TrEMBL record:
Source organism per UniProt: Streptomyces abyssalis
Alphabetized UniProt keyword annotations: Transcription, Transcription regulation
Domain Putative zinc-finger per the UniProt entry, residue ranges: 41-70
Region (Disordered): 1-29
Protein name, as recorded: MDMPI N domain containing protein
Amino acid sequence: MPQEKATHGEQAGPEEQPASGEQPLPEGLSAGQLDHRVLKSLLGAWALAACSAEETAAVEGHLSECGACADEALRLRDAVGLLHPEDSLDLDPMLRSQVLEGCMVRRAPRVPVPEWAAPYDAEASRLDALLRDMADAEWFAPVLLRWFDGRQHAERETTVAGVIAHLLAVDGLVATALGLPDPLDAAVPERAAQGGGPSGPARRTEEFWNADCDVLRTPSARGPWREQGHAMVRTASFAGSGAAGLDVLYGDFTLPVRDALLDRAFECWMHAEDIADAIHYPYTAPQGKHMHRMVDLAARLLPGTIAWRRRTGLAGAPQRLTTAGAPGRALHLEVEGDGGGDWYIPLDSPAASVRPDDAVAHVALDSYEFCQLVAGHVPPLETAAGQDGDPEAVRDVLFAAASLSRM
């Protein structure tokens, strides 16, 4: 419809300007022919990377010739940097624990998780988060399990689903000690009919893997494992100190529940790293206070493992026999870094009384390196450890640390 002429006393209104306030490109003029006034009006859009390719080229060409516009462009770019910091989009791996800790300070839980159960609760949750982030096809990715059998390194290949079945089977030892159902009885009905009975982690795992149970070969294996873990933490929380000292039978040795849950926390962490390596996924170490408890458990188990290696002929006899409670030789184990500390390991008898002055050798390792040694992932003689003093004592402790590992 043709526009009517303005009536007497009215003036034609100005042409509508762009909403952004920027000057429109003159009609018939390309970006390469823009004058100083138009190029200056484009500096804000250029700083925000909102120009077209032609406009960007024209502005940047102009900046090499006009000092005033170059200074203005620099100020605008700096301002944009303040408005849009280039932070990583990845969440801080400690965010979950920080949020939970803040919540607990504001409102304490009615039934708190015991400190000795907190590492397992945290590591099981971290592994569960990894499993939730996986594609279904990745559950069948090959995973290599590694450990040290006391003489040499051993390996066994399985899948991600097989690793979770392994954790479910061995966690069942703690579950039964807490009065919960044994998951192995549900997977292998004939075992329950025969009365079941205690068996070690390796045997239980093999029974699970050999069971005709589809749920253990699919992503739904996560459900039973996670439900059992929740039940264990919940039961331990309600029982409190009454559950801490209950015996957990590992076949040829026994641990109290408080230590068994630390052992399970350590396994969750190490097998989570195995899974993460298999699917090329980043994974971080536990919180320092939780890692310290795991390192402390390993240090407390070392004297008994040294004695076991000597009984089985895997290590030489001690230089002298020491009766229980009598002073004996010691090794100063220094674990450095987050979660580390100092321990004095009896060398002649698990029950020997030792003091810092009794140390005949000193070994210093990074906390992560020590945990990798305890997991059987690092050969004892290739461990990056600082060593001083009796070489035989150092060797006994390094080999004993690796011998704490199992499938």
